[in-house]
Amino acid sequence: MAKDSQGNRSSFREKRELPRLLCTPAFSSSLVYVEGKEFDVSSINFNRNGLGIFMNGRLPDAASGTVSFQFETADGQQIRITDLPFLLVYANETEVGSQYGLKFETGEVMEDVLQALREIESGLSLQAADNRYDL
Fold it and tell me: Could you give the C-alpha distances from 97 to 54, 103, 112, in angstroms and in order?
């Protein structure tokens, strides 16, 4: 059994290297490209290593593709990510829609793209700290 930060036993164990941050309406224009086809998707959660998406229907059977999206920061700046390569690491396909986990392939991307991913993560972190869900 895992232990939390205070040393107490907990049945939950984080499997991800970084926590997922829920996407806000600040995410837009989320498009996935697989096998030469474009798919309009909704971004669910994000960290600088990957993106959770939802779409009506299903993606073709493929292990990889590219993704494009944009994010508006709290000060109104637009951060655009285009044609970022990904590996498909998770799929939950149902009759009413499908959820996918995309792991970004950042080994060959420019430093400005890596910095943009960190900025998006930071922006979502700040929004989460502001208790945007009224919990």
Answer: 7, 20, 33
Half-sphere exposure for 56 (CA within 13 Å, toward CB): 1
Q: Which CATH class is domain 16-129?
A: mainly beta
How do residues 23-53 score in pLDDT, each as one tens digit? 988 888 899 999 999 999 999 999 999 999 9
Non-local (6+) Cβ contacts of 116 within 8 A are 79, 80, 81
What are the residue boundaries of the structural domains of the chain, listed by start? 16-129
Show the DSSP H helices in the chain as ranges: 111-129
Radius of gyration of the chain from its Cα atoms, rounded to whole angstroms: 16
Q: What are 78's strand-pairing partners? A: 72
pLDDT of residue 14 exceeding 90, the answer is no
pLDDT of residue 125: 86
